Amino acid sequence: MIVKKYRSQRSGRMILETYDRLLSSWACEWKERDIETMYGTTHVIECGQEEAPPLVLFHGVGDDSALMWIYNAPELSRHFRLYAVDTLGGPGKSVPNRNYNKEFDDIRWIDGILDGLGISRAFFAGVSHGGYLVQAYALKRPEKVIRGISVSGTVPVGGKKNSMKAMMKIFLPEALFPTDKNVYRLIRKLSGDHYAVFTENQDIMAHYKALLKGFNNMAMGYHKVNAFSAREVDQIRDKIAYLLGNEDPFEKLGGKDILLRHHMNAVFYDHAGHGLNHELSDAINQKIVSIFLNG
């Protein structure tokens, strides 16, 4: 049985309509393509010069590439060939098949994406759960990851149980009742001082509300978050950089302390929250370019 991503056909249409509206507002040239993998069709947004270094991007849970990279793609595409992936099971344009089930393997899925794109090695960056994917892939396929960046995410030593507790504490009750007022409140809860980059963009607000109302979060349930051992943390320490906002509620619940305790390569930004790459897009864009291209 193929899991349903949307709560109704109408919900799905609204999510995809607002997705396209957001993507059309990206301030750079882009194209869309679909990559066939063993788990279904994976949708990818590409931009930047084809000869530029490849940078593979992963968004978080409950969102998609059109929303996640709207303020980053224009600058990053000046330096990299971007491949923004819509996660299988997420609300974007990727379409799972019957193999997307309890046997789903993120690593084999990403292998299939790279094979379809013709990429042997790349830079990788991800936000929140996307940051976990970057870390997991760097651990399992170190030869394919030149270097990685996790934005608004910590090193996974607590596992999925702790992650789900944090999600519930932060997103409830607003996410259960996504009125205009509650969507605004949730964004304020997740963000630092620069929340207006969300609330003053009507296309973002419309899309975010559509996601909260129409996306079936259970569709992401086959993505397993595996806790890393101390040895595994040591293996990725020099390959992964972490960028975090000090007002991020997830970091306040212990994520920051974990990074500091394990001596990870982390940079913390004042007055910013979980939407760090939106809230301080100029600073984060510059930092990503610097980490990847200047060492």
Describe the structure.
By secondary structure, the chain is α/β, with parallel strands linked by helices. It has one domain: 3-Layer(aba) Sandwich (Rossmann fold). The chain is 43% helix and 17% strand. It contains 13 helices and nine strands. Strands 1, 2, 3, 4, 5, 6, 7, 8 and 9 form a nine-stranded mixed beta sheet that branches. Helix 1 runs antiparallel to helix 9. The termini are far apart.
* Assembly annotation: single chain
Could you estimate the helical fraction of the residues in percent? 40-55%
Stretches with pLDDT under 50, minimum 5 residues: none
**CATH H-level superfamily:** Alpha/Beta hydrolase fold, catalytic domain
Cα distance spanning the termini: 46 Å
- Count of separate structural domains: 1
The ordered H/E elements are: HEEEHHEEHEHEHHHHHEHEHH
Write the layout of secondary structure elements.
Elements: H1 9-24, E1 31-37, E2 40-47, E3 54-58, H2 65-68, H3 73-76, E4 81-85, E5 95-96, H4 106-117, E6 122-127, H5 129-140, E7 145-151, H6 159-171, H7 180-190, H8 196-199, H9 202-214, H10 230-236, E8 240-245, H11 249-261, E9 265-269, H12 276-279, H13 281-294
Helix pairs in contact: 1-9
Nutshell version of this structure?
With 295 residues, the chain is an alpha/beta fold. The chain has helices at residues 9-24, 65-68, 73-76, 106-117, 129-140, 159-171, 180-190, 196-199, 202-214, 230-236, 249-261, 276-279, 281-294; strands at residues 31-37, 40-47, 54-58, 81-85, 95-96, 122-127, 145-151, 240-245, 265-269. It has 13 helices and nine strands.
